[in-house]
C-alpha cells in the first residue's frame, strides 16, 4: 500500500481484481504538517472507479436500512455524502461550519481533526422529528 501512495495520479488504471478498499492507495499522504489531515482523498475523488467503489463500500453496512436523507459534514463530507445520496436517490443535507447559512439553523459545537474547537450548523427546515 505504501508504495502505491507515492505513484503519480493515473485516472485510467483500474486493478484487474479490485479487492475491497483498493482505492485507499489513491489517497496522498500529508506533506504539509500537523494542521492538515493525515491523508488527502482528493486523488481518490478524481478516479471514477475508485470513487464508485468507495461509495459502494461505504453504503454496504446500510443495505436494507430505511434511509430518508444523507448528511455530510463541511467540507470533505460533502463529496462522499453527496455521492452516496445520489447513489441512493436521496436528498443530501450539508452540515456546515457555523455562519455559512442565511436561514434558521440548529448549531452544535465540535472538535475537528486538528483539535480546534468549532461550531457546525444545519438548516432547521431540512429535517423533522422522527
Automatic annotation (TrEMBL):
It is an enzyme of class 2 (transferase). Homodimer. One of its GO terms (molecular function) is adenine phosphoribosyltransferase activity. Pathway: Purine metabolism; AMP biosynthesis via salvage pathway; AMP from adenine: step 1/1. CDD domains: PRTases_typeI (cd06223). It catalyses: AMP + diphosphate = 5-phospho-alpha-D-ribose 1-diphosphate + adenine. It comes from Crotophaga sulcirostris. Its EC number is 2.4.2.7. Its main location: cytoplasm. InterPro entries: Adenine_PRTase, PRTase-like, PRTase_dom. GO terms for biological process: purine ribonucleoside salvage. One of its GO terms (cellular component) is cytoplasm. This is adenine phosphoribosyltransferase. It is found in: Cytoplasm.
Amino acid at each position: 500500500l505504501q508504495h502505491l501512495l507515492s505513484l503519480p495520479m493515473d485516472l485510467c488504471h483500474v486493478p484487474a481484481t479490485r479487492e475491497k478498499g483498493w482505492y485507499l492507495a489513491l489517497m496522498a499522504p500529508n506533506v504539509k504538517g500537523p494542521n492538515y489531515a493525515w491523508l488527502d482523498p482528493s486523488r481518490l475523488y478524481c478516479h471514477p472507479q475508485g470513487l464508485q467503489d468507495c461509495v459502494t463500500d461505504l453504503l454496504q453496512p446500510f443495505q436494507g436500512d430505511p434511509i430518508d436523507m444523507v448528511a455530510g459534514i463541511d467540507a470533505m463530507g460533502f463529496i462522499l455524502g453527496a455521492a452516496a445520496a445520489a447513489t441512493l436517490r436521496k436528498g443530501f443535507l450539508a452540515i456546515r461550519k457555523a455562519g455559512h447559512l442565511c436561514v434558521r439553523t440548529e448549531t452544535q459545537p465540535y472538535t475537528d481533526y486538528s483539535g480546534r474547537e468549532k461550531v457546525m450548523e444545519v438548516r432547521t427546515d431540512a429535517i423533522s422529528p422522527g
